[in-house]
Design brief:
The complex is a heterotrimer of chains A (511), B (356) and C (322).
Chain A: E1 14-23, E2 26-36, E3 40-45, H1 52-59, E4 67-72, E5 75-77, H2 82-87, E6 90-93, H3 105-109, E7 116-117, E8 120-121, H4 123-136, H5 153-165, E9 171-175, H6 183-198, E10 202-206, H7 210-216, E11 219-224, E12 227-233, H8 239-247, E13 266-275, E14 279-287, E15 291-295, H9 302-309, E16 317-322, E17 325-327, H10 332-335, E18 342-345, H11 349-353, H12 360-365, E19 373-374, E20 377-378, H13 380-394, H14 410-422, E21 428-432, H15 440-455, E22 459-463, H16 467-473, E23 476-481, E24 484-490, H17 496-503, H18 507-510
Parallel strand pairs in A: 3-10, 3-11, 6-9, 9-10, 15-22, 15-23, 18-21, 21-22
Antiparallel strand pairs in A: 1-2, 1-4, 4-5, 7-8, 11-12, 13-14, 13-16, 16-17, 19-20, 23-24
Helix pairs in contact in A: 4-5, 13-14
Chain B: H1 2-41, H2 48-73, H3 81-95, H4 100-127, H5 132-150, H6 160-166, H7 170-177, H8 186-189, H9 196-213, H10 216-226, H11 228-233, H12 238-264, H13 271-287, H14 299-318, H15 326-339, H16 342-347
Chain C: H1 7-39, H2 48-73, H3 81-95, H4 100-121, H5 126-145, H6 156-163, E1 165-166, E2 169-170, H7 171-189, H8 191-201, H9 203-208, H10 213-238, H11 251-260, H12 272-291, H13 296-315
Antiparallel strand pairs in C: 1-2
Helix pairs in contact in C: 1-12, 1-13, 2-7, 2-10, 2-11, 2-12, 3-4, 3-5, 3-10, 4-5, 4-10, 6-10, 7-8, 8-10, 11-12
Classes of the chains: A alpha/beta (511), B mainly alpha (356), C mainly alpha (322).
């Protein structure tokens, strides 16, 4: 478990000894020893549910460990809350944003220790401070006076990073902090991390994006099932063996094979679709049993397209045909009716996909209750049969269907969302970035499932921010830019170069 | 290029500022329109006498509305503001007499009592971890019980000079307590017509609310209402801010009760009246542009919300609407006012935004 | 930190309020009986006739609380209950004859429809919209009656339902039982019930799952309105006529009963048995306090303290950590 490499540096800046944390019957961390040093970027790897989140929650004072000690710069510390940890110089950028949506960017950046004059918050100084720190991460385009609620997700994530920096941390923890960022921002953030490391910070990063880890990490630690498996210098292990360490089993291929012939029948045809200034003359079709990917930079209208098809957007103009028949979908209820049979895996599973405090059973049943009722009443036998098959089909790892869905790991939660929709027997599945923040193992299961669905004749339209998924998963890729589909790629044309070029709308320059 | 971009930034800032204060501007304009209409139709409109009467009628509700604003900003609700006001009213009906120092002490005790009630609310919510709406429903009953105990039947003994001075214009205050040459000083005439309750209202807003809104605790109240989890993650002291919110609410409600005593010269533990004040305070808060979901709004808006509500009744009075129809009109106006928010719903293009 | 809860604990989280409310009911009975034994030498509270009589009075509250629970489960609230009760009673007695009860229920339905429309379609917070509707109803009734109790009397059927007994059991109690059965079936066995819980948890997620959330909200408000209307007609039958402010005493106790029974005030969680026990608790508490001839001041204080006490015992929310 310990690695000789760790002893190269005299004393770790932050160290954990014998940390154990249990949630009810589940052991999230099992007597973990861990250390990180100043002037180093330390990546923590592992599947969802491996204990990474608990680890950083303990470091940042959000949860208190059941056993074990935490030492910072040599002295033992106990944090009663995030405020304690912040005061000690440990600042965490969480995956779930910790920004206050109704306050301004400047308010948020300065929230824990705003500049004061005569005891009252000095708004001007606050804005100056915010401008300085935003400039440092090359986010001058964000107005510090704007309400955070009005910013797109990727900008909010950058504000989150700015907020963390403004506290002058000695330990900076990033929990999937880059998952919502655009490619350009990711480069900025990685460059910044290197700079901060050189300034002597201890940086801890959790990411599922291997290429980012390769680009920036000095040390890597792998966690699995609440245990610290191994710590090694970046580059000492091949990506393949790291992945194997994370999931604890051999994995054959990253993506399942693509299908070679696609039926010429069209499940979905969209023509001249317009909405506000976000969707412009969209023309797109999806064949039966075809997986079509939506690519492009974040926020080019991909989400709106999926929501629009699913009946969420009002005043959508254009025609939508399902199986050649023109339909008008005004609500998600319309979208799931027989004859249309659409399903949408929404972007944010915690607020849009799941009812977190409710049971797995209730969540699974929600979309298909109308098919499982006889007269006024729910057919309990049919319901429990459907739920059992849903759980086993998606291999959801849960103690009992009566458990609250919030007790599941992120990957299993996403499986519940997917299983809920599969229970409605959809013919067209729309997915909005379904693998964001999900561990490698579950990702692969989702890829296999999508391919399986396609084999069975289900049509799939998927938006993902991950180029690898577009390349590995999709039969066809439509790249969007500024509300338009700028290019459709097929077969061998689906490669990183083409996708990036089209995403930046540089096709003409390059052609 | 740079001047253009700086102009662009300035425009941007102006737009953001307008967006932030749109609700406040709207309620102020609505109030001014209603009030001008009222005065234009009043036989003695635009006179000091009318201003004094109106200011007196509005003060207690304005205070209770401010009291309600702070818990609402925090994402809660205080169903006990009317009860706290009534409790202080009953207490004040015993204490506001005797020598000037006794009266001063009595006023201090009254305000402290209101503040203590608010503090109790805060403690029940924070340490009892009970939802504010249900916690204050319960504490409200307790406060009403104490009020009934203090004043089983309406009545009281309130110092006449004080009541007279504080419920009239500045001239009377000067005349009663003999400063500014009994109010005859030349420099004083320019302001001597201003109703005292109006001065007190502005003082409460400027001296108490504005500093609070710009303090770290006040900022935390907004943060909690907007996203409590994020506020906790940002290391804000949630418990302190919550207790402070309810305590300050109790303080304002106490001021309202104190003033009500001066205005009516008696204490009255009237349960329906307390309920009406609580409900009207919520209406005033909403009309004043504060979101019941928390995080957005201000007590200044609520003051104008209270003004709008009262001005509507003033208008009924001068148009001699059948008293039997008056409650109906008030109800319809209230319903229409709160339904104005629905206009935004029509503009929503992404139906997911409806569920925020 | 939802995931931190053990499964066993989370199971009992729903049962705990029911257990404690039950224990508290017994405690009230014990204290009340001790009091009557020591002052009058009789155990009045424990006599079946007295209990049935109290429950008969309590059934009006019970019917209101049943409707209120549906709305609270959605994460909303219905503050128009007081004047829905009064309006239903007044219109029922005004119309009279066989149409009286349907008119009473119809008034409730109509109010529920308006409430539901405002909340579901106009998206106005229920707290404020139902408050406005309550004010309008009051205005309508004041205009209708001239501000006095209407002279019209309750029909014999209304009186029968409210006052009569079948084999010693008050009919009103049977009405309450029937309502309760219907609500239990609705919540546990129908998709509508599941949708109510789902919307109370996260309306956006329910909407995206293809639930007609607005329709569900309207139906719940209509049911709440109709049950208030039913309570109004029963109440008018009980006191033989309708009068101003007859519903005022039912709003807060109904909310309190639902919450004491373990239903989360923000929606999404709760069981009907709890509401039932909450009603019984409040009714018995009132009877004991009147036996003790407690003045209004003391009643208010005790009433408030009991709610806080009960919630301190089991209603504490979890501390926010995320």
């Amino acid at each position: 478990m310990n690695n000789p490499d760790e002893q190269r540096s005299p004393a770790p800046h932050l160290s954990l000894q014998g940390i154990t944390k249990r949630y009810g019957g589940v052991t999230a961390l099992d007597s973990v020893d861990f250390a990180c040093h100043t002037g180093s970027i330390h990546a923590v790897l592992g599947e969802n549910g491996a204990g990474k989140s608990t680890l950083i929650k303990i470091m940042s004072g959000v949860v208190t460990p059941d056993e074990g000690t935490l030492r910072l710069a040599g002295s033992e510390r106990q944090f009663r809350g995030p405020a304690d940890a912040n005061a000690a110089g440990i600042v965490c950028i969480f995956q779930e944003l910790s920004l206050i949506p109704d306050l301004s960017v400047a308010d948020n950046i300065c929230i824990s220790n705003p500049p004061r004059r005569l005891g009252l918050i000095d708004n001007r100084e606050q804005i100056r401070r915010a401008e300085r720190v935003l400039a440092r991460i090359q986010c001058e385009d964000v107005n510090p006076r704007s309400r955070v609620r009005d910013l797109p997700l990727s900008r909010r994530q950058m504000v989150e990073i700015a907020k963390a920096l403004s506290r002058h941390p000695s330990v900076l923890i990033l929990d999937e902090a880059t998952s919502a960022l655009t490619a350009a921002d990711v480069d900025n953030v990685l460059a910044l991390l290197r700079k901060l490391r050189d300034e002597g910070l201890a940086i801890l990063t959790i990411s599922h994006r291997m290429h980012e880890i390769e680009a920036v990490a000095d040390m890597c630690s792998v966690f699995r099932n609440g245990q610290h498996i191994e710590t090694f210098r970046e580059g000492d292990r091949s990506p393949q063996s790291i992945v194997q360490m994370m999931i604890g089993r051999e994995i054959s291929a990253h993506f399942p094979d693509k299908r070679h012939h696609v039926s010429s029948e069209k499940a979905l045809e969209v023509d001249a679709l317009n909405w506000e200034d976000r969707l412009k003359d969209i023309k797109l079709d999806v064949g039966k049993g075809e997986i079509v990917g939506l690519g492009g930079l974040d926020g080019q209208g991909q989400k709106e397209l999926l929501l629009g098809l699913f009946g969420v957007l009002r005043k959508l103009r254009g025609t939508v045909r399902i199986d050649g028949r023109e339909v008008r979908i005004r609500t998600p209820l319309d979208a799931k009716q027989a004859g249309i049979n659409m399903a949408l895996i929404p972007e944010d599973r915690k607020t849009e996909g799941l009812l977190l405090p409710m049971s797995i059973e209730d969540n699974l049943a929600l979309a298909s209750l109308q098919n499982l009722s006889r007269g006024l009443f729910v057919d309990k036998l049919a319901l429990s049969a459907a739920i059992d098959s849903g759980i086993s089909r998606m291999q959801i790892k849960a103690g009992s269907p009566q458990d609250a869905v919030s007790t599941l790991s992120g990957g299993n939660q996403q499986k519940v969302v997917i299983a809920k929709w599969l229970m409605t027997k959809p013919k067209l599945v729309l997915l909005n970035d379904p693998t964001r923040g999900i561990d490698v193992g579950t990702k692969q299961e989702i890829y296999r499932l999508l391919r399986q669905l396609a084999e069975d004749g289900v049509s799939i339209l998927i938006y993902t921010t991950d180029y690898e998924e577009l390349i590995g998963c999709c039969d066809r890729v439509a790249v969007m830019y500024d509300g338009r589909i700028v290019r459709e790629l097929q077969g061998d044309d689906i490669n990183e170069h083409n996708i990036i070029a089209s995403s930046l709308n540089m096709d003409e320059q390059l052609a | 290029m740079s001047t253009e971009s700086s102009r662009h930034v300035a425009m941007d800032n102006l737009k953001i500022r307008l967006q932030k204060n749109a609700a406040l501007f709207t309620v102020i304009v609505v109030f001014l329109a209603f009030y001008a209409f009222y005065n234009a139709n009043h036989p003695r409109g635009f006179s000091t006498a009318v201003y004094i009467q109106n200011a007196n009628e509005v003060f207690a509700l304005a205070m209770v509305a401010m009291a309600q604003t702070i818990p609402v900003l925090m994402g809660g609700l205080d169903l006990s503001v009317g009860a706290i006001m009534t409790l202080v009213n009953c207490l004040a009906s015993h204490l506001l007499n005797g020598s000037p120092s006794q009266i001063a002490l009595g006023m201090l005790l009254c305000v402290l009592a209101g503040t203590a009630c608010g503090f109790l609310n805060g403690c029940v919510v924070v340490y009892g971890r009970i939802q504010p709406i249900i916690a204050t429903l319960a504490t409200g009953a307790i406060f009403m019980g104490i009020a009934l105990f203090l004043r089983p039947t309406p009545g009281g003994d309130v110092d006449g000079d004080l009541a007279w001075a504080l419920t009239n214009d500045l001239y009377e205050i000067a005349a009663t307590y003999g400063f500014a040459e009994n109010g005859e000083a030349a420099w004083f005439t320019a302001i001597s017509w201003i109703p005292v309750p109006l001065v007190l209202l502005v003082a409460a807003a400027v001296l108490v609310w504005l500093p609070f809104a710009r303090s770290v605790t006040g900022r935390s109240v907004y943060a909690i209402g907007s996203a409590e989890g994020a506020a906790y993650m940002s290391g804000l002291s949630i418990d302190r801010a919550k207790i402070a919110a309810f305590t300050l609410g109790g303080f304002f409600a106490g001021l309202g009760g104190l003033y009500l005593t001066l205005q009516t010269s008696s204490g009255n533990a009237d349960i329906p009246q307390a309920g009406a004040y609580t409900l009207n305070s919520i209406a005033a808060v909403v009309i004043g542009g504060t979101s019941l979901l928390g995080g957005v709004g201000s007590a200044i808006g609520s003051i104008f919300g209270a003004l709008v509500l009262r001005t509507i009744s003033f208008n009924f009075r001068i148009f001699e609407i059948d008293p039997l129809l008056q409650p109906l009109f008030e109800g319809v106006v209230l319903l229409a006012a709160v339904s104005l928010g629905a206009l935004a719903v029509v503009r929503v293009k992404n139906t997911l935004d409806l569920f925020r | 930190m939802n995931s931190s809860r053990k499964r066993l604990l989370s199971l009992s989280a729903d049962d705990k309020p029911i257990l404690y409310a039950g224990l508290f009911v017994i405690l009230i009975l014990a204290v009340g009986t001790a009091y009557t034994l020591s002052t009058q030498g009789t155990a009045t509270l424990l006599s079946p006739t007295y209990l049935l009589q109290q429950l008969q009075v309590g059934s009006f509250l019970g019917v209101v609380a049943a409707g209120m629970m549906l709305v609270i489960l959605l994460g909303h609230i219905d503050l128009s209950v007081p004047w829905t009760i009064a309006a239903a009673a007044m219109m029922a007695t005004t119309v009279g004859g066989p149409a009286a009860i349907p008119v009473g229920l119809g008034v409730g339905l109509l109010v529920g429809l308006v409430n539901g429309f405002g909340v579901a379609y106009l998206r106005i917070p229920s707290m404020i919209f139902t408050l406005g509707v309550n004010a309008v109803l009051r205005g309508l009734m004041v205009a209708h009656t001239g501000g006095f109790a209407p002279q019209t009397a309750a029909t014999p059927l209304m009186q029968y339902l409210a006052v009569h007994k079948i084999g010693g059991i008050p009919v009103a109690l049977l009405v309450w039982a029937a309502v309760s059965l219907a609500i239990v079936l609705l919540l546990n066995r129908t998709s509508l019930g599941r949708y109510i819980f789902a919307i109370g948890n996260k309306e956006a997620a329910a909407y995206l799952a293809g639930v007609a959330t607005r329709r569900v909200i309207i139906i719940a408000f209509c049911l709440c309105g109709m049950l208030s209307g039913l309570a109004g007609t029963l109440l008018a039958g009980y006191s033989t006529k309708a009068y101003q402010g007859m519903g005022d005493a039912y709003l807060l106790p109904a909310i309190a009963a639902v919450v004491i029974g373990g239903t989360h005030i923000l929606g999404g969680r709760g069981r009907y048995v709890g509401t039932l026990l909450g009603v019984i608790l409040i009714v018995l508490l009132n009877s004991v306090l009147s036996i003790m001839q407690m003045p209004e001041a003391g009643r208010q204080v005790i009433y408030g303290s009991v709610i806080i006490f009960m919630l301190l015992v089991y209603g504490r929310g979890s501390k926010v950590t995320q």
